[in-house]
Design brief:
By secondary structure, the chain is mainly alpha-helical. It has two domains: 124 residues, de novo design (two linked rop proteins), CATH 1.20.1440; 46 residues. The chain is 75% helix and 0% strand. It contains six helices and no strands.
């Protein structure tokens, strides 16, 4: 798993920012002219996705990051809702292709955020704010232990397969197993 030190390096933030730029460009189109409230809210929601990813990341605790990622996901849904409304309004037919493309990209971003949320909810890491020398050492030991047991499980599976197919006693097969 990658470790990010700055929100600017986060794939979700970069995607959200690129999509916000695309929303701003879309709403500059002539067909969005005189739709001030819609344009304003659409732009604000698009910016909200990236801003909430950044703010949650900077807070320094996993729980706060989770909370802000849920807000970001909600804003992504709000953008999709307004884009779908724009299509139903029927006054922006010249932009339907761009709008549908953005809807698909925001759906993908929502899935990306959901996957990140699921991984965060299944971790015992409390976040940078809670790290100290002891918790870093404990985490490192736990990671090493998990890697060791994963290797042991892999070795056991290969050994059992070798016993089943009769290659376990074969010195060449054993050498391959021990030195992959």
């Amino acid at each position: 798993m990658a470790t990010y030190k700055r929100f600017e390096d986060l794939p979700a933030w970069n995607t959200a920012t690129d999509l916000a730029v695309a929303v701003f460009r879309l709403t500059e189109a002539q067909s969005f002219r005189f739709k001030g409230d819609l344009v304003n809210q659409l732009r604000r929601a698009a910016l909200s996705v990236a801003n909430n990813v950044a703010e949650g990341f900077e807070r320094g605790s996993t729980q706060e990051l989770i909370n802000f990622l849920y807000i970001a996901r909600g804003s992504a849904g709000e953008v999709r809702s307004m884009l779908r409304f724009s299509i139903r309004l029927g006054e922006m037919n010249d932009q339907d292709e761009r709008i549908n493309d953005l809807i698909a990209k925001y759906e993908s971003l929502s899935r990306q955020l959901r996957a990140w949320l699921e991984s965060l909810q299944n971790t015992d890491i409390q976040g940078q704010r809670h790290l100290n020398d002891q918790s870093r050492a404990d985490y490192g030991r736990k990671q090493s232990s998990q890697a060791f047991w994963a290797k042991m499980d892999e070795f056991k599976a290969k050994m059992e397969q070798g016993l089943r197919d009769g290659t376990w006693g074969n010195p060449e097969a054993k050498k391959k197993l021990l030195n992959p």
